Amino acid sequence: MEFIAFTYVGNFVNDGVMKEVVFDVFDGANRFFEENNLPLRFLYIGKLKLEPGYLINIYSGEEKIKAYPVEVLVEVLHAKLLGEIEEKPDIRMNRIFALTTFPLVSRNPYFDFYEKFLGVQETLVGLRVMLLSMKPFEPPELSELIKTVQRGSASPAERALLREKLELFKNRLLKGVLHEVGHGFDLGHCTNDCVMNPPSSMGEWDSRMLGYCDSCFINLKRALEWSERNRRE
Ligand SMILES: [Zn+2]
Ligand SMILES: [Zn+2]
């Protein structure tokens, strides 16, 4: 069995609800691996704490958002993974995955602006760091609905709508997680009904099957077997 260290980063405005989203996605991914006989599991290693000093302000139009530069996150996650490997030498784990609540940004090396990313992957001395921002997957009505329900002023219809939007959010995220996991094992993009086929819109992403097409599935399975064989030798 191969493990991927799993963590999340960020401050949730609606902490309880968002934590539920993170852990449902975590469980959903592990259930997917299990049901599909993939010798792969996420291992939760706790929430990642970051020094607030790294936070930068980004202005996009009228809006001011706070974010951590990708470079900082990758470094912190790499160090965290090294610590986990040292603590658990008997399990195979050379990848770390983090869900972030804020956008992923990096300073463009040529121009003075920050670029936004949905997902980021980086390999440092044989260790893979994977990042996925939750924000782009969030249905726009969600945070207002959460506030209404938390205020106690929600109608049954609004409560039902919140449940529906939360399910949609989790489903989108789980597909995103499987997409990044695919990249984590060197899968490229494909053009089939598959999580490895990047969408041009969220609507397209919603209509996509939750899973890998046959050819991506075989490639992922092979990559996992390869890594298992390398360990034995
Ligand atoms: Zn991709
Ligand atoms: Zn595919």
TrEMBL record:
Q: Which InterPro entries match?
A: MetalloPept_cat_dom_sf, Pept_M54_archaemetzincn
Which Pfam families does this chain map to? Peptidase_M54
Q: Which cofactor does it need?
A: Zn(2+)
SUPFAM superfamilies assigned: Metalloproteases ('zincins'), catalytic domain
For this entry, the protein name equals Peptidase M54
Q: Which CDD domains match?
A: Peptidase_M54
Q: Which UniProt keywords apply?
A: Hydrolase, Metal-binding, Metalloprotease, Protease, Zinc
Q: Is the keyword Coiled coil in the record?
A: no
Q: What is the lineage of its organism?
A: Archaea, Methanobacteriati, Methanobacteriota, Thermococci, Thermococcales
Q: Which PANTHER family match?
A: ARCHAEMETZINCIN, ARCHAEMETZINCIN-2
Query: One GO BP annotation here?
Result: proteolysis
What's the source species for this entry? Thermococcus celer Vu 13 = JCM 8558
Q: Which GO terms describe its molecular function?
A: metal ion binding; metallopeptidase activity
The organism's place on the tree of life at top rank: Archaea
